[in-house]
Amino acid sequence: MSENNTLIKIEHLVKAFGDNTVLNDVSNHIDAGEKVVILGPSGSGKSTILRCMNLLEMPTSGKIFFDGQDITDPACDINKIRQHMGMVFQHFNLFPNMTVRKNITLAPLRTGLMTQEEADAEAEKLLRRVDLYDKADAYPASLSGGQKQRIAIVRALAMRPRLMLFDEPTSALDPEMVGEVLNVMKELADDGMTMAVVTHEMGFAREVADRVLFCADGIIMEEGTPDDIFNHPKAPRLQEFLSKVL
Ligand code: ADP
Ligand code: MG
């Protein structure tokens, strides 16, 4: 795909925690509309890559570009950039002391993106989309894990992000709730959202990913289409990984 279609670009990313170099010269990019799934063993740096994309983690060296802008430049207003990147975590991270509606409207209101009326209308639209409008006035504690995660997704969508980052969004869920969350993510993918998804759901990766990245030993060891990665893996580390998860 053409360079000027690139939404996020990672250039020579190095991330060390003390003397533990977790990412060692990672370069990649995600094009607008592309769905990228990131696989790899536990501790291989998958979360760190995602968190560097929105600077929740500061790269030790290397650059991250969002829509052509170097967001690792100290002059860049990262809070402004982060508004364009929604993130969904394994453990939902909903605000427990706020209703579902407030969880969703908070950021669009705080940032001035929407008026109260607009934010309420958007929250209603999003909640209907995930079949949870009846929970608008409920508190997170009263929801199932699957419901919480669907709310976390629409809360991120309320900011109308250009990129969605998912860090193992179904890993904390009981098995019977995984499907409802993956379905919301598939709909989002069908709608054309640009997505980077860390997941162990291989069915999702096969079905949704345009490109799969396999992380190991601090690098992206292999990348390709789902067919390349699942049916023709080259690196022995990837073959070993797949033999355990498939
Ligand atoms: P993954 O998501 O693939 O399981 P992570 O990106 O969470 O891997 O972590 C990669 C490595 O970085 C692990 O060794 C982890 O212990 C380490 N690490 C991650 N975050 C921190 C942190 N904030 N401080 C110190 N070490 C960290
Ligand atoms: Mg992780």
Automatic annotation (TrEMBL):
Signal peptide: none annotated. Keywords: Amino-acid transport, ATP-binding, Cell membrane, Membrane, Nucleotide-binding, Transport. The keyword Transmembrane helix does not apply. One of its GO terms (cellular component) is plasma membrane. It is found in: Cell membrane. GO terms for molecular function: ABC-type amino acid transporter activity; ATP binding; ATP hydrolysis activity. PROSITE patterns: ABC_TRANSPORTER_1, ABC_TRANSPORTER_2. Its main location: membrane. This is ABC-type polar amino acid transport system, ATPase component. It comes from Eubacterium cellulosolvens (strain ATCC 43171 / JCM 9499 / 6).
